[in-house]
Write a structure and sequence with these properties.
Strands 1, 2, 3, 9, 10, 11 and 12 form a seven-stranded antiparallel beta sheet that branches. A six-stranded mixed beta sheet has the order 8-7-4-5-6-13. A two-stranded antiparallel ribbon has the order 14-15. The chain is built from twelve helices and 15 strands. A hairpin with a 2-residue loop joins strand 9 and strand 10. The chain has 313 residues and is of the alpha+beta class.
Length: 313
Amino acid sequence: MDSKAPFGGSDGAADAVEPFLVEACGLRGRLLRLGPLVETVLSRHAYPEAVAGRLGELLALAGLLSSMLKYEGVFSLQTRGDGPISMMVSDVTAAGELRGFAQFDAERLETLLDRAGPGTPSLPHLLGKGYLAFTVDQGVHSERYQGIVELNGATLTDCVHHYFGQSEQLATVVKLAADRVEGQWRAGAIMLQRMPREEARAQDLSEEEAEEGWRRGCAFLGSCTEAELLDPRLAPNRLLYRLFHEDGVRVFEPRPLTLGCRCSRDRVARILASIPPASLEDYKVDDAVVMTCQFCNIDYRFDEIELAEILAP
């Protein structure tokens, strides 16, 4: 289903990604909004603001990029570096279940923030030297795809542009944002791509017209502010119309995203069963083993009776 209507559309506070076309310019894109989902992920861990903001952007980017792919399995993004934020992970299942977490050194982060003064330090200071990895894992019977790019740029957006610039992808521009709005965390992302030449020709666009359309589209996207990208009262259709109404924008059915963690007590029990009994003693506290899911921060506690049942032949 599609619509050219300038108003209405999905709720501006919803967790969803909405495809769109600007056919007159030979462009296609995605607009993503995260509200309750990103608030739940970030508040469960009580991350410092600098960590929460960068993880919110990664969650938005994962939801955005996964919507471009056809896969059965899990799409994931991961950053690793030698800075105070040593790792961030976000993944999305084919069903649209999104989750994420971050690992950081609280002492190093506090020292960095004290030295930096007001404002959030740039990505190189927070993540250090490292890489951003894109992975599509479709299970043991399918080939695993992975793309890796160096963390290069002052922002996560810069790193994504570096990735698209290094690969043989279509010309692509992305804008990311994550911040508190009225006390609640929100995240947003918008992406614009130049159509392949075959599709542009199908729209009766010459090479010169397609080039001019790309320049116009990038200029329009550049006018989108972070406040607009995060505003829960500004519905996606309204924002897209505000940006591209001069050339006409067609929007399609949004794809909902949900919070989904694949941990469970049974899954944790299977992990414990694979650990040698002697090694399990190192994990015990007060005669019990407690395993915490890094994604959802839920604790799974197993007392000695339960451990004996798990380890029984």
